Amino acid sequence: MAEEDRKTVRSQVKDPDLIRKRHLQIGIKASKLFAKKGYAGSSMREISKATGITIGNLYDYITKKEDVLCLVFDAFYSTWTENLKKHGVFDIEDPAEQLRAAVRKMLELVHNYQDMALLMYRESKHLPKDFLKITLQKETEFIECFEKILKKGKEQKVFNISDPFFAASMIVYQISFESLRGWSLKGRYTDEEIMTYLEEIIMKSVT
Amino acid sequence: MAEEDRKTVRSQVKDPDLIRKRHLQIGIKASKLFAKKGYAGSSMREISKATGITIGNLYDYITKKEDVLCLVFDAFYSTWTENLKKHGVFDIEDPAEQLRAAVRKMLELVHNYQDMALLMYRESKHLPKDFLKITLQKETEFIECFEKILKKGKEQKVFNISDPFFAASMIVYQISFESLRGWSLKGRYTDEEIMTYLEEIIMKSVT
Amino acid sequence: MAEEDRKTVRSQVKDPDLIRKRHLQIGIKASKLFAKKGYAGSSMREISKATGITIGNLYDYITKKEDVLCLVFDAFYSTWTENLKKHGVFDIEDPAEQLRAAVRKMLELVHNYQDMALLMYRESKHLPKDFLKITLQKETEFIECFEKILKKGKEQKVFNISDPFFAASMIVYQISFESLRGWSLKGRYTDEEIMTYLEEIIMKSVT
Amino acid sequence: MAEEDRKTVRSQVKDPDLIRKRHLQIGIKASKLFAKKGYAGSSMREISKATGITIGNLYDYITKKEDVLCLVFDAFYSTWTENLKKHGVFDIEDPAEQLRAAVRKMLELVHNYQDMALLMYRESKHLPKDFLKITLQKETEFIECFEKILKKGKEQKVFNISDPFFAASMIVYQISFESLRGWSLKGRYTDEEIMTYLEEIIMKSVT
DNA sequence: CATGAATGAGCTTTCATTCAT
DNA sequence: AATGAATGAAAGCTCATTCAT
To answer: What is the pTM of this model?
Structure first.
């Protein structure tokens, strides 16, 4: 209880199943609200309305407004990783094939949750210190997935890169391109073009 | 530059020189504050303290808090473009040489104003509509500088890219890598390593 | 009276009984404050103190300071019309008798709520447009009560007037005489004298 | 200097002619502003703009914002009495004729300065105590003009009134009818009709 | 005398948070 | 567990007034 402190959002309620259910409910509904109005721009009243939980009851499941943001990040990572596991990307043997599949899958995911990716960049500043650390840890683990693929490809001499981790970081970064810079491309390119170009650029950068 | 700009932030004060001076003062000091506490998280009283201008006087130079953010963006673009012009990047003939020089220069700039790049991504949401349009225009012009280099290189067959504008957008995006994802690299790489790797990756992506 | 009114001042609070109670409380207490210091001269903090409702809670029952003024007008008209109905003025048959009774009753009322009449003249400028319309409508209805009496009297040749509505307007105006010009009479006449003279003048003006 | 204190608005400036000129200028221009936006609703900045005197200079002729209101009242009484003297109302011998002439003249005056009359009712609350006393004195003197006419008429048995001063007060009050209640008549009556009816009612009230 | 930049108290309003029911 | 009324600190912004030039 002392060391494991703050790994999750504290709640007054006893029933753990109810807590899980409500926490997910809050995270999902609030994420849509935050995407539209931002974290600071959303009041607890609005969060209450969006989640369908009265304001007093909301505070039975959280202790501060920050917690709602943590729940949003939690919910996001849940759906994100879940979606990724469903498609057996990591079963592919050929590194180039595998990388292309992973990148394409991720691009689709980011495309579908565009606001979310942007949201996480924008609002991570408001996360409490200890939760931020956890988040960064999760991101690092995510990068390491790509690092693994790159390392294998480098050993097999199919990839020509100097530093696998650095390259993996850049790939993960590039995947968010549409979310963060999409506005400067909208009108010039179709969604499919954007994803095709991105895939192409990323693949070329490693070969 | 003196007559045509500053139509966006109106002030009560009549002396145009004083306005320019104070606007710059506000933009620079507030940018440091915003980088630390964010736009929404910084109160007008804090901005007043940071700029050294009393709150009432501050409102002689702006009309809304938004305006401070505009001044931050303004100040940023001023120093940014100014710095870029100083080094005769656009005199270089060889496209590859030219691109490398431009990228390296920009990487150094972004490195020195790290918080700023992140700030601009994070807070552009809070810009008023009309000012946002101007900002996007400035960004597009910036991208087009790189597009021009890429086009020339493509014609000379030194660059192998399918869409120069898209590639230019990606390069500009990659240049901000350190600002937006730097935390995942800190501790693993020195500043110099980061810039060298970035330069290498960007150059490879076009050849 | 319960369902149809109070569409003008919206509140966050859900319990309609509580809303009615608080709205009346605000209207009455604020009216005394406004009479003393004027609408513009009374701060929300003072209104809060005067009503005994904390400032945040106050804003659960109103949306703008204007609303407080509306509630003052509401409360005034409520007590005004209520008081008038209590005394069966409109049952009297003889027009002259009826007019004299109505005037006398009104004079007493205005005398008891002296500051209020003055307040309403002074502050109606600050009412929001739509509410002002409602207020004027209520006043017109009030004038029409007197118009009706005058019309009947004119038909029965007991009153000698050229335009009943105009005359009714003037009577209603004269009734507020004490509120608006009382200061120039204080010291010269007793309260009872003022009312007697007023009654006399008004009655003579129609015969 | 001790007893006569505060009879007028104090000024830093030495030249008495300039003071008079500026005071009148301020009073006239500010009156139009106050009529539109009210005393409390007009800022010193607006007053400065309306008068064409810079804010600092303004404070060379006044000491507080209140003073501007005093100057408005002063300017008003100046033009008012001036206008009244021009027409030789007080030379008429027959009391009824004289009263009718005075009333008609005043009605025209009030009609032309409608906003002003309303303004004075509304804003007299904001006058400093000592100045208010002077204002009331001036008003009383004005009422006494009518009282004199009524007294003469009463002695000659052409007027049938019980208390001349009270009746005079009421007449002065009725003269402002259009200013204070005009909105409820607009649309129903022409300006000329209003004045004719008013004259008729007032004359009947004394005979 | 005139100018207008500077001051800071005070205004209206919002909002995270608590707590009696 | 759930409700929503109540709290008050703090936010953005205005404005009468001063004062150096």
So the answer is: 0.89
